Write the C-alpha cells for this entry.
Amino acid sequence: MKNKCNCPCGREKEYEKCCKIVHDSQSNARTAEDLMRSRYCAFTKAMEQYLLASHHSSTRILESESKQLINWAKSVKWHSLKILETIKGGEDDFDGIVEFRATYFENRQLKVIHERSTFKKEYGTWYYLDQLIPLY
C-alpha cells in the first residue's frame, strides 16, 4: 500500500518535493518523464491551467475542451501511474517518448489509459505534444 505522503506520480517523495516543484515552474521538468509524471499528478488534482500550459501550443486543446477534461478528471478516482518505457527525452534531448499506464476508478470499475506520448522541448522547457498510439 502506498504511503499517503508519496506524490501521486508514483515516486517515493512527498508532493512538495516532487511534482509541486514542476507545477510551480514547468521549466523544472528536467526530462520528458518528469513532465509526464507532473501531468498525471495535475490530472489527480484537476489542475486545468497547468495541463493547458504544459501542452505544446501546436496541439493544445481548446479551453472549452479542457473544461470537459477537468470535469472528467474530477469525477474519477485516480489510482496509479506506471512508466513502462522512455525513449530519449533526457535532459540533453529535444524530443522523447514516454509509454505509460494510468489507472483510475470510474463508476466503481478499474480502467486504464495506456499510451505512448510524445514530448518536445522548446527553449529549455518540456511540453506534451500528443499521443502516438493509444494502447489497450
In short: The first helix runs from residue 19 to 24. The radius of gyration is 14 Å.
